[in-house]
Structure prediction request, 532 residues.
Amino acid sequence: MGLAHPAILKYLQELGITAIELLPVHAHLDEPHLTKNGLSNYWGYNTLSFFTPHVGYATRAAQDAGPTAVLNEFKHAVDALHGAGIQVFLDVVYNHTAEGGSEEPAYSWRGLGDQQYYRHDTHGNYVDVTGCGNSVNFADPQVVRMAMDSLRYWVTECHIDGFRFDLAPELGRDENHHFTRNHPFFVAVAADPVLQGVRMISEPWDVGAGGWQTGRFPTGWADWNDTYRDTVRNFWLSGQRTMARGGGGGNAARLAGVISGSADMFAPEGRTTLASVNFVTAHDGFTMYDLTAYDGKHNQANLENNADGTNDNHSWNHGEEGVSDNVARRTARAKTVRNMMATLLLSQGVPMITAGDELLRSQGGNNNAYCQDNQISWVDWKITPWRRAMLKTTKRLIAIRKTFLASQPSHFPARPEDVLLHWYGPEGLPMTPELWQTDGSRVVQVVLGSCGGEMVGTFVINGSNEPLTVTLPSLEELMTQAECATGYPAIRGTFELVLATDFELDERAGTQFTSGDECRVPAQSIAMFSLA
Prediction:
């Protein structure tokens, strides 16, 4: 299995990855319309069996040897990843099955217990909160038992470390199809001894009424944070587009909120910063590079008249749609990708990177490549100078994250003695309400670290279209604010530039500044400093 190939393991280790999340590995079927069009369900979100690995993902030798060999090959892949220090999470699709709508044949539970296993209204029609034609009825105890048996199977037999639940609110809907965070399924997961310590991650939305539930899952769960995604895109993409057209581009207030761990969403339920799975891209939607190269989706290859996929991308093509031969435009796009990656990896919470974004992977503007088992979806491993630069930057950012945020607070709201997170304006003074609220106020400095941690740092965000000379914060001022100042007796007031997303400034990495010094930060860039 390619997943466990030594070259892949080495690549992931050198990148600094500690966990991977696989798209569905459960046995699945291709939808009839895909088969008719000569396409396949490349992502696998059309589950046939919740207890069986998909045969098509195994090597030819394992397929020829039979089902046991296929299962063993997957087990060996998981063991190899564990041996490399990498956890394995599975994306699981318990919200619907391969039957599709009522007009489709019976493949799974429909042939055994249609009324029990699927949601119906009072007229006997399917209730579809997934957009897939049917929704599994988690109001029935037998359905909850089936899902629990499946989760336990993958943990005990294959040693899986965690699960990401597709369209997770569907699993928490009661007999009236309303979401409740006290649903029996969530209670069962929390109480099951086999699942203790196993990571539970929600995709916290479905397409039914009341389907957006980000921040509302039970304590112990983590949520994909779509507010984080949209906020980062709006700042680095939509905001830049607005400024290119003469507008102010908004301010940094919302960005600061998500960098800080989205407390407004998770703290009310008593959940920590670690409940926020931060991401800018995922398998569905544009790649990180395509966000900078396409204003609109280009899904013609899916043979659905470009009607599939979201139209709400928050992207900006930097003035030209698609591939460009303009070096200045390509340079600007690559820097915007670095800005988004830096923001992701320097934020409180748990970062999730889509495979290939560290290599400027493009899908040619396709934002719904679920049926493209070809060059559109595949990672191109040929390392060009552009890709090499992005890969190097990503490695450095991951290493910086491990230095500065390895001890980020695991409770929320964080106590002052446990966290160091302070915001400053370009003059090195604390941010004011006026600065936070002013349209076009897109320059901010954040000092971050975990009290008792090994390192403290600051990064400067210049989201304006002009280079700006910023004054690094006064450490005397900082230590006055920080109740945890005694945790840093070694701080001498020296800032060292460790990374800049603008390559010209990055050439000065290693340069030291003292508290109150000035540093010129290029337009649309981030500069990261360590504090010693």
Remarks:
- The longest helix spans residues 385-404.
